[in-house]
Fold:
Amino acid sequence: MDPFDDINAFEKMMKKMLESFFGRGTVDVFGPTQIRQKAVAPGVREPLTDVYETKDHVIITMELPGAKKENIHLDVSSNGIEISAKQETVTESKGISGTSFTHFKKFMSLPTEVDAKSVDAKYNNGILEIRIKKARPTKGRKVKVK
Structure:
């Protein structure tokens, strides 16, 4: 008996349970695609994303392979960001051409409050980099109770 039989059986059981809850093809807990893109709805992918902070900024990098700059949309608030993009793929085979679309979408809460008016976004070679200035902390004030 292989000592990994129980682990493999447990993995299959967990994957089946998660897929019944989230939908088939949306969960890959144990495979390498766990950190890659996952489907969030039919035809929509959640892109691989990294978020980190510097002293003054929140920086987000995201993989959007094949997307065009004009098809990337950002909606930034003081505590969250929604990113969506569309990738268009044109294929031709045996004289027949076709176009398919893949949509990327991600909403995330940000680790700290930001200034939504100070967003700098650059897209190069399939990588989107978003740099947002952190909001300046506001001083509290004393309030007299009446």
Observations:
- Residues 1-35 form one domain.
- The chain has two domains: 1-35, 37-134.
